[in-house]
């Protein structure tokens, strides 16, 4: 099994700290401007505009920093490993899906909700960014890439609606696992 998570910001802890400091400074600076405008204009309108801007900023941070996607490919059986607590070989990982399954999840912070599971028997093709689509009309496209469509890989598979295309942004290890289940 191999899992990969992607998000739109590709942030680090340093960029998170800079974002937090910037938000605090912007909040208090905008709040000061709002109070000055309220006193000079004699109206509560600047306060409502400030609240609307703060809510929009929170929504954008939620969408760009906390929401992402997790891809999982089950390409081999779990192997037992030595556990010194019990002094024996133990199987620590039970796969919730059979080997040969690809799972796409939407994650918010650390919680994931499964959007799509694809069995290896349903996979038609995997194409690199800019690659040609397989024969057949694509009836549905699902974008789970967090990148531009021109930079996303495409996984084509058949489901109950017909040929579906999933756009995603895998790393090389994920691609290796995906190709191994496609070739087996």
Summarize the helices and strands and which ones pair or pack.
Elements: E1 2-7, H1 13-41, H2 45-66, E2 67-74, E3 81-83, E4 88-90, E5 101-108, E6 111-119, E7 123-127, E8 138-143, E9 153-159, E10 162-168, H3 172-183
Parallel strand pairs: 8-10
Antiparallel strand pairs: 1-2, 2-5, 3-4, 5-6, 7-9, 9-10
Q: Helix amount, in percent? A: 25-40%
Which overall shape is indicated by the principal axes computed on the Cα atoms? Answer: extended
What is the structural class? alpha+beta
List the strand order in the largest sheet.
1-2-5-6
Question: Strand share of the residues?
Answer: 25-35%
Order of helices and strands: EHHEEEEEEEEEH
Major β-sheet annotation: 4 strands, antiparallel
Report, as a whole number of angstroms, the end-to-end distance. 15 Å
Count of discrete alpha- or pi-helical segments spanning 4 or more residues: 3
Low-confidence stretches: none
CA-atom Rg in angstroms: 23 Å
Q: How much is the average pLDDT?
A: 87
- Strand tally is 10
